[in-house]
Amino acid sequence: MFNRELYFKALITRTLGREFRYIPRIGSTNDLLRKTCATETLPEGTLLLTDHQTAGRGRAGRRWYSGENLNLTFSLLLYPQLSMEASGLISLMAGVAVVDGFRAGGFFQAGLKWPNDILISGRKIGGILAERFITGHGSAIIVGIGINVNEDLAQMPADLQASTTSLFSTTGKTWSREKLLAAILLAMESYDPTTAPADILKVWESYCTHAGKTVKFNRGPTMLRGLFEGLTDRGCARIRIGGKEQIFSSGEIEFDDTDN
Ligand code: BTN
Q1: 6 alpha carbon to ligand 1 midpoint, in Å?
Q2: Ligand 1, CB within 6 Å, residue ranges
């Protein structure tokens, strides 16, 4: 079970994660946090964490699997003053903060895949689902983060084993979820998507696993192929397709083995 005392001992943020809510079992932390916002005025940085998420949601309607008591599955409430178009910066910031958090714990091999997958050697170790909505006090964003921390790959659903990994499976040791979460939140607090988005974009590009590489890009029913050139100032993908740079605010990158 997640140890609240250990977590607060490690937490040195000003705001993020200071309001901490724990629920042992829930369908989705994103859904519960949003529901709670309808009845309570929650402070910036409120964090809701569960040890057993039974109906975790991923991007594009996918499911997020997480074994009980092993991983980090949580949602964070933010009230950033950002236009709708710039909201994508929040999930980029969260991805950067997760990689920073791993690094603070001495693990340097993780990278990012646009827009917000956290990878180790091409396998997914974490994902982010950021959802914007309107509260009585303006717009809010719930940043849902799932990280495979102490998951044993062999125990995961068979269909996920080839594409997934965990910190435990990669490093062979058990990680303190409490310390890792505190480190991720501290890293996140060092970024400001409103006043200094360029800092986030710069670090994101340095962690990107496919910068300057040919990628397959899945956009709805269309599969494109092009060179991933980097990010726009709002975090959109710049992909050169057929000699022309195109800008995408959403879509799915797949690695193109023919060129990497
Ligand atoms: C993805 O990679 O598709 C995003 C996965 C996001 C999973 C997290 S786990 C905590 C939060 N609650 C959810 O239902 N989803 C997010």
Answers
A1: 24
A2: 28-30, 53, 56-59, 62, 64, 73-75, 117, 127-129, 144-146
Count of domains observed in the chain: 2
191-247 pLDDT per residue, tens: 999 999 999 999 999 999 999 999 998 877 788 899 999 999 999 999 999 889 999
Chain segment 100-152, per-residue pLDDT in tens: 999 999 999 999 999 989 999 999 999 999 999 988 778 999 999 999 999 99
Range of the domain at 191: 4-207
Determine, yes or no, domain membership for 260: no
Contact between residue 140 and residue 130 where contact means Cβ atoms under 8 Å apart: no
Q: Is the dihedral of CA 105, 147, 145, 235 positive or negative?
A: positive
pTM: 0.96
Q: With respect to residue 108, please indicate whether it lies within any of the assigned structural domains.
A: yes
**Other C-beta atoms lying within 10 Å of the C-beta of residue 163:** 10
